[in-house]
Every structure is written in C-alpha cells, then in structure tokens.
Amino acid sequence: MTKKISALVFSCIFLASTTFAFEDHIILKNGDRVTGTIVNRSDEAIEVETTYAGVIKISASAVEKITPEPPADAKPAEPEAKVSADAEGAQAKTAEAPKKAIQRKLFGDGKAFGILNGWSGNATIGYNYASGNSKSATLTTSLRAVKDGTKDKLTVYARSLWFTSRRSGTSITTSNAFWGGARYDRNVDKKLFGFVSYDFERDRPKKLMFRSIVGAGIGHHTIKNDRTELDLLGGMAWNRTWQDNTKTDTPEGLAGTVFKHKFNGRLRVLGTLTFFQNITDRAEYRFITDSTVSIDVTKRVGIFFTVGNRFNNDPPLNTEKNDFLFTTGLKWNFGKAK
Known about the structure:
- The N and C termini lie far apart (91 Å).
- 15% of the residues are buried.
- By secondary structure, this protein is of the alpha+beta class.
- The chain has 2 domains: 105 residues, SH3 type barrels (Roll), CATH 2.30.30; 217 residues, Nucleoside-specific channel-forming protein, Tsx-like (Outer membrane phospholipase (ompla), Chain C), CATH 2.40.230.
- The strands form 2 sheets. The chain has a 12-stranded antiparallel β-barrel with strand order 6-7-8-9-10-11-12-13-14-15-16-17.
C-alpha cells in the first residue's frame, strides 16, 4: 500500500514538473513575465493561454524573449497578474480612444464646449499722471485674443482710452473712447479664406454714442510662415451709427490688411489697417490703423508701444477728422504669444 501511494505521488510530481517544463515563458521588455502556452503567433502579436487569465494577447514589439524554462529569479503569479491587468487596461483605453476623439472634436478638451480652451494673446495697460499747475491722467487698455482651429480662427480685440485734465478747479474729460470687435475666419484652402466680422466704437466727447459695423468677405494668406504673416481682406459692411440724437445706416465697402512679424523670441510687431468706403457717397470714407511693437521681458510680462490713428474725412458736428494715439505700458501674455 505504501509503495502504491509513493508511486502515485511520484507520478503526480513528475507530471506537474513535465507540464511546467513544457510551458512557455514570455519575458517583456519592461521586466514583466507571462507563463502559459503560446496558441498563436505572428509578426504583430502573440496569444498566450494562461491558467489564471485565459488567453492574453501581447504585442510582439513588447516581447524581449521567449524561453522554454523560467529564469532562476522568476516570480510566480504576481508579475503575471500585473501584466494581465496592464493588458486589460490597454484594451480598455483602445476601446475608449475613438469615443474621446469624437468628444474632443465636438466639444473641445475642456468645459463649455471648448470655448474656454486654446486661447492665446495678450492684454495691455498704460497709465500716465501729471500734477502741478494742471493735473491730468491718462489710462489705456487693450486686449487681443486668438483661438486657432484646424481650419478656422477666431480673433477678439478691444481698446480703450480715457483722458481727463483739471485746471483752475474745473475737470474736463477730453477722451472717453472704447473700440472693439471680433473676426471669424474659415479656410477654403491653404491661401484663401472667408470671414465675418463685427466692430463697434464709442467716443462720448465726440458725441459718438455708438457705432456698430457688421462685415463679411474673403481674405488671402499672402504670406504665412513661422516668422511672418500677411493677410489681405476685402468685402462689404453695414454701418449703423448713433451720433448725438441722429441714427444713420450706411452700406460700406471694406478693405484691410493684417501684418505680423517675429524678429526673435522676444521682439514682435503687429500692424492692422482697415479702410471703409461709403458706397452711397464716394466723398465719404474713413480708415483705422494700429501698429504695435512689443518686447517680452519674461515669458508672460513685457512692454509695448502702440501708434493708432482713426481718420474720418467727413466728421459730424465740427469735430476733428483725425484722432492720433500713442500709448506705452505693460503687457501680459497668455497662451502662446501671438
């Protein structure tokens, strides 16, 4: 009886060791090991049948070597379980990737349908103050933000100017102006694009209560590389103006250009010119120009110099035709500097 039991035990041990010897041992490049029987093998993947996780599919590029016997320091099940978990996680990520790609395309990478993400540009502020026989103060602010897409671009911009002086106890505000707008571009091909725009203006000392301009047209990327960009614009606009107690509606033709050049990582120049021609009266036209030179002191903070000009050849209420503006101050960059 004892001999039969001994023979049975010996047979079990022999069969177990034989089975273990005939198992394949896959060593991965990250140090993990998988023990099992290879059931399918190709240049792309290896399928291994294991006793603890069924069939596992491993990328062939992740395999360091395959041996018929385990290395002396092989660990039993712990690393194998880790490989199984990693493989399952990779499969889950692969299945989830298309869904996330669709979500990013529709809604952007963040909240509010991506509207709050991907903006770049700068904000500026300048302030001057003088006192003595006369007191004066000047405050200027501006904002320019750009959101780039694969085939489209949204640009938002705004500027303000406030100037007041006090002499002989009397305070006079000679400038209280605000300009702003937005333009949306959609590429047709590498050079041609369509655009829609909206601009507004207010200047209380000139009794310009509000001017609203809606425009649309086509543009051309005449120059576009890593250092220089030059866009040419042409189209039509509708100008609605509230001047004092009078409201006027005027169809206008518009033409413009936007020039950007980066001399190096710190020095940049930006120039814009927009010309408006009254279609119903050829003698009436106006144009707006802005040129800014900016120097980055750090990645986020820099200084700027801006020369602006607003010209109207037929100004109402005996106001001056030309408004010239020179401002300087600090700027703050957000996103990637534009």
